[in-house]
Please model this.
Amino acid sequence: MTEQKIRVLVGKPGLDGHDRGAKVVAAALRDAGMEVVYTGLHQTPEGIVEAALQEDVDVIALSILSGAHMTLLPRVLELMREAGMNDVLLTGGGIISKDDMQALAEMGVGQLFGPGTATGEIVEYIENWVNNRGAKVGTTS
Amino acid sequence: MTPTARKGRRDDGRPIVQEASTREERMAARVAAWRDRWDRQSKRDIDFTSTSSMEVAPIYTPLDLADTDPVEDIGLPGEYPYTRGVYDSMYRTRLWTMRQFAGFATAEETNERYHFLLDHGQTGLSVAFDLPTLMGYDSDHPMSEGEVGVCGVAIDSLADMETLFHGIPLDQVSTSMTINGPAIIFLALYVAVAEEQGTPPDKLRGTLQTDILKEYIAQKEWLFPPEPHLKIIVDMMAWCADNAPKWHPISISGYHIREAGSTAVQELAFTLADGFTYVEEGIRAGLDVDRFAPRLSFFWNAHNDFFEEVAKYRAARRIWARHMKERYGAKEPRSLLMRFHTQTAGCSLTEQQPENNIVRTAVQALAGVMGGTQSLHTNSMDETYALPTEKAVKIALRTQQVIAYESGVANVIDPLGGSYYVEALTNRMEAEAEAYFRQIESLGGVVAGIEEGFFQRELASAASRYQEEIDARRRVIVGVNEFIEQDERLEIPILRIDPRYEREQCDRVKKLRAKRDDAKYQAAMAGLRQAIRDEQNLMQPVLDAVRSYATVGEIVELMRDEYGTWREPSIF
Amino acid sequence: MASASRTPEVAGLLERFVRGDRRALARALTWIEDQQPGFEQLLHATHAGLGRAFRVGVTGPPGAGKSTLTEKFALLCRRRDQRVAILAVDPSSPFTGGALLGDRIRMQDLTLDDGVFIRSMASRGRLGGLATTSLEAADLLEAFGFDVVIHETVGVGQTERDIVSAADTTVVVLVPESGDAVQTMKAGLMEIADVFVVNKADRPGAENLERALTATLGLRPRADREWNPPIVRTVAVEAEGIEELAAAIDAHRAHCQKSGALIAKQRARSADRVCDLVARRIDAHVWERSGGERILEQALDRIRDGAATPYSVADEIVAAVGFGSETEQEEGA
Model:
């Protein structure tokens, strides 16, 4: 038996093309031993959730610098719920105000990280979240 | 300077002094003695590197400039190779243009802001568009949801453009428009609005960014594959040369390359290589280089490392002049001038202790000015949170005014010229850029490099290295990995865009499509499609299309249909 | 063990798998990748009826356009009403075990089609171009009802031999720039390719590459001489040549059906699987029953002192479960 790998989808929803942060984070998660599915730019919430479902990821990590996070993140969350992905974390980062982070947290989005975050902090957050959730079991329908 | 400048030195940088003059010998002896003393001193435990992770020496001396010709390599402002500045008198004649980028919500809101700015003495406008507009989607396209009017103004058609410039005499202002993929449509829209005001194209002054190569390299806002985009850019250069001689059809931009994580040398080399590519495309299309080259302009980043940035601007001027003259045979002196706009580095701003960003921006802006910029945008301290508030924008503008009027740096042209360090760094950046040019050439040019993922790979590894240095605290960022304040309380007000603007804009574009003259629209679109297939210059057919109130999204969709789309290679 | 009774968890997952729940499929694939307890039960329970789906391998050097070609081929299969699953493999870091899986970027037109399922797999230490559990994952996808299963290999440049046993038809993708790769991979390429693709055929050098391939093909007869791998020119980003590729794949499949090669390959896959499983079972059995870990731990010092060798210790361990000894036989002979 091998260990359970943490699988993370890293993607950029919406139209902004600034993928520096997403790529740096994806590389850091890989270096921390995770399997990172990178879906690239200009993703729709529907595409992100369907890819996350097929890839059976533990975590969806989205980077949004365009200011459209209050539209895109709730939409992703809604689609995750419709798909029954209750054991998957939605997290991310970008240009997001503290008030918006608070509002999104109340909806069920995980921690969001702003510019200047050390990648180690993101790695640690994801590892802790997965450890607290426990092993992947048979999903419920 | 070329790499041969290193000849006659040993690996440790000390010269092999043989037939040098007595003064040089004495200097070399002094430097050797100093180095012995220096070796015995304790040093702080930190990497002494530039922001671009470039090793720098503890001191620079005349020995570092032994192969630099003060006449041919450095010279004087306003003369070849323009290392010290593109104009004879620089800021003594005219300060740089303080051009703050602005745009939000709808055309109507932004028009009000422009009137406010013009009433307060501003003579140049700078339009920021929202992401759907930049990507060629109309506001009511599903991909646009949540993004309309957020990062800039939403423009769907000539009707919006009429509103945006309502009451603004386009023969009297100069307008900069930051848009790339759909640039030709915006040139047409601007020309069409001016026409309605009775202003012919030859009276129009301003700049379109248009630089698609850096989109593939860094900002990722392309619409089609590189080939058709380059073809369209040549169309614009040719049309402007004939019809709008005061318009800058392209602003070759390093800013976004740097923001995407490049080093200063990569910004310098990749941007100039992009510039050379446009020149080559123009020449290949049969244009005379001196007809279009004088209207090419540049746009650079200003990052934290003061001297590295100043040296970058100086090296850029010299490289551009040398290549334009020697490689492309430009004869007109204006074809050799690397004129540029500068923006302080958005990526250097921190979310932590945001007021510190005012200081960072001031240092960066100072580098832009000491490097001889023609115009400058200073970022606002709150841009890591959202669009800047009015107060933050005002502080950013005041920063430029303090530099211009209080610091004294605008009194003297190229005040750092002759600094051993700055001249040595200028030489070194030129040499390293030349090495990159050779590498790009061996790949088959910029487009081949993009297709192969060369630039994307260089940027990704530079960005990762920078982040690793910060994470490992080998590079100190104040408030981020040192001098951290626990329980920091944020007291910055946030500017929000009301979601009603998106609904209104969607209604507006739907109504426009319903009420426009459909026959005229269909005819214009058919003409455009035919022109694409016949590989004609697209400027006139695009003008006809925008005049028929075809929307930006419709025109782009037709072009995507003809030209196809593009997906980048996956590079980390 | 597969024959052991199912745990409620496996039963629940299976029940949803059989109903066609894509999330259950995704989770089952994870169990297989992680080799979680119960994964063999899943494979056992879903194995009956395998052998109908067509398995295509896509391999070639980096930058050859494998993902784009896979996407366009999958789109064509969809137009033929076939359901398509894609297993795209990227390398795991040998140091951290992490991986960046980026193949989906080039397959975006397939994401929202529920007749398509894409799974990115990290190689997890396997070196032959596929992931450790690629074959098992392909079985599961077939059992779920996919008509075509495409294996896209890592594509790191060397010959990726795993694909030969995993796929019924192996497509080797090359580009004009991969002339050097053709030279270094020559022997291996000729053995694994059922169909050659010269992708990016609108670029200079395409004809030279095709000529080089033809010349090399002429020199190297294969074991099944009657199939001569065709060379198909494509421009995958423009979806040019995809029909021709599909026709070549179909022709190879028909050829294999007629010659019996298809059944032979399926039989070989089954045989390999049984051998693997037996080896895995014996391994587990020996370590569990012999107290081998304890014996090993105690023997390490003796090996250092020269009182024992790795060979004699292995004998000691397997002897504890009644296996014969290699070293004693030698000494006795």
Notes: The beta strands of chain A are 7-13, 35-43, 59-64, 89-94, 112-113. Chain A touches chain C at residues 1-5, 7, 26-27, 29-40, 46-47, 50-51, 53-56, 83-85, 136-139, 141 (CB under 8 Å).
